[in-house]
Write a structure and sequence with these properties.
The complex is a heterodimer of chains A (311) and B (285). Chain A contains twelve helices and 14 strands. Chain A has helices at residues 42-49, 71-77, 93-103, 108-121, 137-149, 167-184, 195-198, 218-225, 237-248, 266-276, 291-299, 305-310; strands at residues 2-13, 16-27, 31-35, 57-62, 65-66, 78-81, 155-159, 187-192, 203-208, 211-216, 228-234, 253-255, 258-263, 281-287. The longest helix of chain A is centred in the middle third of the chain and has 18 residues, at 167-184. Chain A is elongated, with a radius of gyration of 23 Å. The longest helix of chain B is centred in the N-terminal third of the chain and has 31 residues, at 70-100. Chain B has one domain. Chain B is an all-alpha fold and 285 residues long. The chains are: A alpha/beta (311), B mainly alpha (285). The A-B interface holds A 13, 47, 50-54, 72-73, 75-76, 78, 80, 82, 84-91, 95, 98-100, 102-105, 107, 147 and B 9, 12-13, 16-17, 19-21, 23-24, 27-28, 31-32, 100-112, 279, 281, 283-285.
């Protein structure tokens, strides 16, 4: 069962191409993560999926409906949580939920029961008469999710849900999302630029510069790299890189002040390297590949590099 | 049977969002007391100060009943000013809603764009009417502290209803105008700029502040200003004596005023709906 089908989707803001021929599918009942650096295109994709932006070229269907022609039917069945909170800050938590219910055609006892249920589930019952302005970031985010879940959507779209949350609140949020997926079978799509968050998804799509560069479960993606990952720091990384190539026939990736080598049986190479260049190497570490390593392998640049250049 | 229940459900789906958006508008307004005071206080002060300052230099138009003071002349104009200010400021909230993210939440909800427009407009209109009603109550009372003229209200219930209905029409048109401006702008500063170069002159040149001259360029500008007909219509409805007075450039007939205001209303509401129907980048962030 497919929840979302994206076929050859491109989107441009004026001259700038934000999405470049993206094609993938999201299955029903999975937590799907769109991982990428800021500016990679994930928010644009999120906006198209949530029916806010028109489909410029390509084809997108959400819950078997065409986004371009049938957005009204889709809106009834999806819940959307934006990066910027969509709560009315001057109203109380409960008032916000009442308005939300009305917008989705819910009212009366049915609405009151649902509000009570969502407030209880998200631990907001004792704060329901508090003005949103007076809540902490974590509680606001929870109220935001209660709002998005009020009409029992089959698909929940969350844009950077952990923004502004402390580690404890982030942990709670993910526990809730996982519970929602396993108990109610809700399909969840999350955009994120955090690696540890991406690890918690069932499947991931890596977006970089508007292109989908990898797709799979976190384990599959790591397996694609294979073996171990060696990270070497050196005073003269470029020179060292050249000498490693000469001696071992390996071409390390040069990333800033560090060199990176992906290798099966990395520990053997590690020993040889340290023996060969004891002076040049300042430190070296060996690890299983992380999602960041996957990103580097797929794109040839560091995850944060682009943003660093932009700032 | 199934068909009827479906229609009923559809109707709920149409009216419920309008109602809830209207209610939210009222709730927000009354939680910000400074807004309540600002939208009513400034026109009230204008009425007293200009009324006192311009008393000597005011030349009543020929249709005016003898002995009409400037403050009496100014009264309908100030009422329209209150409507304008309240309607306009309630639409500024669209820019805030967009910045704070609330608007996105509404845009992804299964709410027709028409319902969104109508919810916002009826909220603004109701607020404007409430504020105007307060002024209609407080204004005449100022006579007792020596700050206002004695206004003789000889209005029947029907007259009152006609007046409030007409004022509602003016408020709806002005709210739709403010909505259309706010929808296309991304900052409240921009809105304030438009307000001072466009909305304030529109009010000044509506016959609120001074009568429409018989000839000259100013006369034409004022005759082309749709708000002129709102002010004149209100003037006629407020003083039934004026029913006898035949139409002139400074006081068009009631039917002309009604037709022009309806036309203005249809135009601004259509504009507001048309703008809202476009899926635009400005609304997403």
């Amino acid at each position: 069962m497919i929840a979302i089908r994206v076929d050859d989707l491109s989107h441009a803001y004026g001259e700038r191409l934000a999405l470049n021929r993206v094609t993938f599918e999201i299955r029903r009942g999975e937590i799907f993560g769109l991982l990428g650096p800021n500016g990679g295109g994930k928010t644009t994709l999120f906006r198209v999926l949530s029916t806010l932006l028109p489909v410029q070229s390509g084809h997108v269907s959400v819950l078997d409906r065409d986004v371009a022609t049938n957005s009204a039917a889709i809106r009834q069945r999806i819940g959307v949580t934006f990066q910027a909170p969509s709560l009315d800050r001057r109203l109380t938590v409960r008032e916000n939920l009442v308005h939300q219910g009305h917008l989705y055609g819910l009212r009366g006892r049915e609405l009151a029961a649902r509000i009570d249920d969502r407030l209880a589930r998200l631990g907001l019952t004792d704060r329901m008469h508090a003005s949103v302005n007076s809540l902490s970031g974590g509680l606001q985010r929870r109220a935001e999710i209660a709002k998005g879940m009020l009409h029992d959507p089959e698909l929940l779209l969350l844009d950077e849900p952990s923004t502004g949350l402390d580690p404890g609140a982030r942990h709670d949020l993910w526990r809730y999302l996982q519970q929602l997926r396993s108990e109610s079978g809700v399909t969840i799509v999350v955009t994120t630029h955090l690696m540890d968050e991406a690890e918690k998804c069932d499947r991931l799509g890596l977006l970089d510069r508007g292109q989908l560069v990898a797709l799979g479960t976190p384990a599959e993606l790591r397996a694609e790299i294979g073996g171990d990952c060696l990270t070497i720091s050196a005073e003269e990384p470029a020179e060292l890189s050249q000498r490693i190539t000469e001696r071992f026939g390996i071409e390390p990736k040069l990333l800033g002040q560090t060199l990176r080598i992906e290798r099966v049986r990395g520990h053997e190479l590690l020993r040889e390297l340290v023996e060969a260049f004891p002076e040049e190497i300042t430190s070296v570490s060996l690890g299983k590949p992380s999602l960041e390593d996957v990103f580097i392998a797929k794109t040839g640049h560091r995850f944060w590099e682009e943003e660093g250049m932009k700032n | 049977m199934i068909r009827t229940s479906l229609t009923a459900a559809n109707e709920t789906a149409f009216w419920l969002p309008i109602w809830t958006l209207t209610w939210r508008e009222l709730l927000r307004f009354f939680r910000q007391r400074s807004r309540v005071v600002g939208a009513l206080g400034q026109p009230l002060i204008f009425w007293v100060l200009f009324g006192a300052g311009l008393r000597g230099s005011f030349q009543a138009p020929e249709w005016a009943p003898s002995g009409m003071s400037y403050q009496e002349y100014f009264f309908p104009g100030v009422t329209v000013m209150i409507v304008l200010f309240t309607a306009i400021f309630s639409t500024i909230s669209i820019i805030e809603d967009r910045r704070e993210g609330f608007l996105q939440g509404v845009l992804v909800a299964p709410v027709s764009r028409l319902a969104l427009v109508l919810g916002k407009l009826s909220g603004g209109t109701l607020l404007a009417l409430i504020q105007a009603a307060l002024f209609l109550l407080i204004g005449p009372l100022l006579h007792f502290v020596g700050l206002g003229p004695s206004l003789d209200w000889h209005l029947s219930l029907v007259d009152w209803l006609a007046m409030v209905g007409f004022l509602g029409l003016v408020a709806f048109a002005l709210t739709a105008l403010g909505y259309s401006m706010a929808w296309s702008l991304d900052s409240t500063q921009g809105f304030h700029a438009l307000m001072s170069v466009f909305l304030m002159p529109m009010w000044l040149l509506s016959g609120s502040f001074f009568p429409v001259p018989e000839s000259g360029w100013l006369s034409w500008v004022m005759r082309l200003n749709p708000l002129t007909y709102g002010v004149a219509g209100l003037r006629r409805l407020m003083s039934p004596i004026l029913a006898e007075v035949s139409a002139s450039s400074s006081l068009p007939s009631l039917s002309t005023c009604f037709a022009a205001t309806c036309g203005f209303c249809v135009l601004t509401v259509t504009l507001a709906c048309w703008l809202t129907h476009r899926r635009s980048v400005i609304n997403v962030r």
